[in-house]
Design a protein that fits this description.
alpha+beta; Enolase-like, domain 1; 2 domains; two-stranded antiparallel ribbon; 4 helices; 31% helix; globular
Length: 186
């Protein structure tokens, strides 16, 4: 048993070894792979409730590595609680042509996350969108070997993706953009 002392805000907390399954667990996994200048994104979501599978969802999409447009998308349910859930797959096609950039999350919520889709599938796709940004950055590093060209491409991409001022590291005067500017000055 592990004990944590009370700090005036939270009472003393005791953590015990738990042998029974959690009430609810969600696992999301996303891979981004290079495929002829495009990203092949594969994502899966598995929800369990009290140890029993509740949702098993897989989504695959092809994303333009430079523009971030969704070129193709498909999905499937391995596990679903209600037969009607599978109707939510039809909403995926509304994402074809959408660009993964600022506003994408709201678009996913209004389409796949609406009464035409599935909120759990929407959660997976929003995570896939985030991973695509990381995958696109890796793609740029793979295909642009020249540091100066890479710095220009990364700075342009960061602005287009709304990364500037999105966190401490991407602050306008933060470490990442400062390094890119220093690289350009060489």
């Amino acid at each position: 048993m592990i004990s944590f002392e009370a700090n005036g805000i939270f009472p003393r907390l005791e953590v015990r070894d738990i042998t029974e399954p959690s009430l609810f667990n969600r696992k999301i996994e996303v891979d981004a792979n290079d495929e002829d200048g495009r990203l092949r994104m594969k994502g899966s979501l598995l929800d369990t409730r009290m140890g029993e599978p509740l949702h098993g969802i897989e989504v695959e999409m092809i994303v333009d590595a430079l523009e971030g447009s969704i070129l193709e998308i498909s999905g499937s349910f391995a596990v679903w609680p209600l037969e009607e859930c599978k109707q939510g797959l039809q909403a995926l096609q509304e994402l074809v042509g959408a660009k993964i950039m600022p506003g994408f999350t709201d678009f996913v919520k209004s389409t796949v996350g609406s009464n035409r889709g599935c909120t759990h599938m929407a959660a997976l796709i929003m995570t896939m969108g985030n991973v695509s940004v990381q995958g696109r950055g890796a793609w740029l590093r793979k295909y642009i070997p020249n540091d100066t060209d890479l710095a220009h491409a990364m700075e342009h991409s960061a602005k287009a993706l709304g990364l500037v001022d999105s966190c401490v590291s991407w602050a306008l005067d933060g470490p990442i953009l400062t390094r890119y500017r220093q690289g350009l000055e060489k």
